[in-house]
Every structure is written in C-alpha cells, then in structure tokens.
Specification:
The chain is α+β, with helices and mostly antiparallel strands. The chain has a single domain (about 5-140), classed as CBS-domain (Roll), CATH 3.10.580.10. It is about 45% helix and about 15% strand. It is built from five helices and five strands; from the N terminus they run H-E-H-E-E-H-H-E-E-H. The chain has a three-stranded mixed β-sheet. Strands 4-5 form a two-stranded antiparallel ribbon. Bound molecules: adenosine monophosphate. Adenosine monophosphate (AMP) binds near residues 36, 52, 81 and 104.
Length: about 140
Amino acid sequence: MSVNRILSTKGRNVATIDPKSTLGEAAHILSERKIGALLVSDGTRPVSGIISERDIVRAVSAHGAKALDEPLSRFMTEKVVTCTSRTAIKEVMESMTNGKFRHVPVVENGALVGIISIGDVVKFRLAEIEAETQAIKDYITTG
Ligand code: AMP
C-alpha cells in the first residue's frame, strides 16, 4: 500500500512557514493548528527545512526564552527526508523509525503535495489490522 492511500483520505494540505519567521511564531502556529511540525519554504524550493516541536524544546532548553525571537531557520532541520505518493507506507514507517522523526513530507515533480505524520501511519495500520481480522472472522464463519 502506498502513501497515496493515506493522502486520499487525509488530504494534501501542508502547513508551511517562511524561514525568516521567528521560532515563537512557529510555536504559535503549531499550537493553534494542533500539529507537530511545519514545513519551511522560502518560496523558491518546495522544502527548505522542517521545524518541529522538538526543535523548539531543544532551542528553548539551550538558549532560554530569547530563542523564540530568533529566525526559525537557525533551529530547523535542513536535510529533510521526503517520499513520493508512490512510496510504500512500510518504507515511510522504516524511515521514521530509523531517523527518529515523526513527519515525512511528500514531494512530487518538485512540488510539495502532502505530509505524512506518525499519527496518520498508526491510523492506517489500525484500520488495516481491523480489516484483516474481519476477513479472517468471515472466512472462519462462512467456511
Ligand atoms: P519530529 O519527531 O518529527 O517532531 O522531529 C524530530 C527531529 O527530526 C526534529 O529535529 C525535526 O526537525 C527533524 N525532522 C522531522 N521530520 C524530518 C524529516 N522528514 N527529515 C529529517 N528530519 C526531520
């Protein structure tokens, strides 16, 4: 099963932010939208970086509250692991586990077309396990 299956259910909207915005502004958007990460885009490239709640915790722990007034580009991760809509969901799960991150942007032909979070993957797997269980029950009762 590919990433496209998840995108067709959750939609292709991605919350993005300009690298010159402050870390405090990023924290505000994450809190408002109840999400864990923002894609950083300067408008010229689809992905300039990613800033997640963990980056904010790390920055405040290292520099104190003054970090919130700094441009978020100082604290974002620049080397972002991405996938395409054809990537297998299993592969995305492996990337998240190996890289210890919970968000993977979906990039297609140089454009950002979605984002997969660990929550999306867990939701998908639960539905898949339920469907498998039901199929086995049906097989037993009709067999
Ligand atoms: P997260 O678990 O997604 O909150 O992110 C944990 C750390 O990994 C943070 O430093 C993020 O900036 C970074 N990160 C998140 N997603 C990715 C990704 N797809 N590729 C590389 N780094 C990431």
